[in-house]
Amino acid sequence: MQQSDNVKNENSTRSQKRKRKRSFFAMGVDVWRYQIISMLLMVVPALLLDNLMSALVDSSGAPVTTANMSAMFNWRLLVFILLAIALILVFIVFEIFGQIYLSRDILNGEESHVFREVGQGFKSVRRFLSPKGLLFALYITIVVPICGVGFSISLTESFKIPNFITSVIFSKPLTAILFVALIAVLVIISIRWIFAIHAMLLDNMKAGDALKKSVSLMKANWKDFFKKFVVIAIYSALILIASHFLCKVLPEYILNRTGQDLPAGLFVDVTGQGLNDTESAVLGYRIAGALCVFLGRYINLFVTLLVASNIVVRLTDRYFAYTGKEPERNVEVSEKKFVLRKVAFFTVPAAIAAGAILIGIFYSQIPLFDYDSMPQIIAHRTGGTMASENSLEGVDESVKKGVYGAETDIQRTKDGAYIINHDSSFARLTGVDKTPGEMTLSEIKELRIKDTTGSGAILEVPTLEELLDRCKGRITAFVEFKGNGVDDKMADDAVAAALERNMKDEVVFISLNYNVLDYTKKTYPEFKTGVLLFGGVGDISKLNCDIILMEEEMSTFWQIMQIKAAGKQTGVWTVNKEAGMKRFMNSGADFIITDEIPMAIRVQEAMRKRTDVQVLVDRIEFLL
Q: 405: which strand partners?
């Protein structure tokens, strides 16, 4: 009798373990299924709204960018804002509302239905249609990605303050401290508001009431919240690190080591009569590499989604606990449904494996992996960190390094001359807090630039003419129209100085001001022009210029391809970190503007020695 009871208990324990495994797997597949189906469902409204926004902008005759925003100051602006709000709400519904309703169903042991959860999400949109609700949606869209805490959407999850702005912020201790303090305040606010969306969805509260409810819940339960979420954060981080290492880092390291002895970029004709030993080895390597890269990323993506959804589930669980609404937790998955979900789940990696094999076989025929050329390097502010900022010595250092161009900024003086200076005043570099427009050329020539290299050199503020003379026959000058005096006269005078020196093909005029560039291109078509952008809507390839120079965060694969398809050149600014350097050396862009010239050259040389798998990985990383 005792033995029979032991057998029953053992069988019961095994049964419970199987149920837990099935329940955990079912949760994973529910998350995976929701992500796949919701992503497909979201494509139509998201693309429709995006195309409507682009069409609206293009109807004004030109795209709207940070260089010509005044073109949008008409009735189109209101319509554009309404379409943008609709697009944001679509992403919030699919990526936040639906996830919370899915978490509720998982906790209650209910069968998940993507259409039901998304439908409930759309019904809940009305809670955002108020001033406080729209402000909260704006907070989710812009502030959460910056501070890194809270619910966010993929539309803006990579949104951050541009590097050229943060570099200015952190250049001074006071502004750096204030910025860090601001981020800390935003983090605290985000934590206090963490349950606001739950209150809106699960308790039908208005936005203002939901925010107050979240603050009161956190105030009453902050000790329990932090105790539990520190543990969740630690094991979530460990799982993500392990997944990243096992699915990406380790296999790619092994493949790259293996491929070092094989010729990179070898053309392998799989339709020919036969392959020699080297071609067979390269073909096998490419197939193995494609399989590891794509399957590894699929598994890593699934783990990432599962970890992220688990956090949402735990947050929902805490909301139920803090509001006294414990879920039923009766998760039961039938044998038949368990098998069906397993089959469905493994169908996708099987398809990915088949696609990866085809990519490995036809690697040589895929244009995506055929890019031997790399961007030309342009030294920021004449020589980057190799010389004092905007100095003639910077030009000399750039020439020594063999880079393509030297970028600099010109401003007009009180008496109509043109000098080289970036800031609105001379305070930072010379200690004199006056603008170029407040001083004559002779007064400016008395100033001395702070040496930043340790050479002890005493440097004058150069003129445009001195810069052109130093660049002529040695390096391409990228001359930026800068300051309050940017106008058509500045363009006329700069062009005259270049023509006087017969430098038509050695100077590129650039600016953040599109109007002056449009004038320059129309009036002097023989000169190349480039517009500097850090944001834009519409087909920016329609801008009347030869080169479109985009800030890092704006420079996506699709933007670069669209511009190049229009027959124009592209560039990225200002790329000063090694990760960004590797990314954009691999982007198809024509130019990279940087302060770190030696690093850029080193990265460029290293990337020329990549294996086929490294090329595949780099290209896929930039594409995604």
A: 378, 476
The residue length of the chain stands at 624
CA-atom Rg of the chain in angstroms = 29
Task: Please give the pLDDT value at position 190.
Answer: 94
Which residues, including other chains, have CB under 8 Å from residue 305's CB and lie 6 or more apart?
31, 32, 35
Rounded to 10°, the helix 514-523/488-500 angle is 50
Buried b (16+ CB within 10 A) or exposed e, 64-102: bbbbbeebbeeebeeebeebebbbbbbbbbbbbbbbbbb
Q: Beta strands 476-481 and 64-65: pairing type? A: unpaired
Which tokens go with 534? 């850090």
Choose between 352 and 598: higher pLDDT: 598
pLDDT above 90 (res 404): yes
Place of tokens 């669209």: 562
Q: What is the DSSP string of 214-280?
A: HHHHHHHHHHHHHHHHHHHHHHHHHHHHHHHIIIIIHHHHHHHHHHTTSPTT----TTSS---HHHH
Name the band, by pLDDT with cuts 50, 70 and 90, for residue 594: very high
Residue type, 599: M
Instruction: State how far the Cα of 378 lies from the Cα of 530, in Å rounded to an integer.
Output: 13
Q: What is the pLDDT of residues 561-570, one digit of tens each?
A: 899 999 999 9
Hey, what are 588's tokens?
């198809």
In the structure, what pLDDT confidence band is assigned to residue 114 with cuts at 50, 70 and 90? Answer: confident
CA 464, 467, 473, 475 torsion-angle sign = negative
Three-class secondary structure of residue 508 per DSSP: strand
Tokens of 193: 């508001």
The token pair at 361 is 């076989």
Residues 6-47 have pLDDT tens digits of 444 444 444 444 444 445 566 677 787 888 888 889 999 988
Angle (CA) 413-419-425 rounded to 5° is 65
505 has pLDDT over 90? yes
List the one residue out of 473, 494, 476 whose CA is nearest residue 485: 494
* CB-facing half-sphere around the CA of 44: CA atoms within 13 A: 4
- Mean pLDDT score of the chain: 87
b/e string for 546-557 if b means 16 or more Cβ within 10 A?
A: bbbbbbbebbeb
- At 15 the pLDDT is 43
State both tokens at 425.
């005043």
Which residue is associated with the tokens 């906790």?
Answer: 107
How many helical (H) and strand (E) elements, i.e. helices and strands, does the chain have? 23, 11
- Cβ-based neighbour number of residue 490 at 10 Å: 23
The whole-angstrom separation of Cα 403 and Cα 377 is: 5
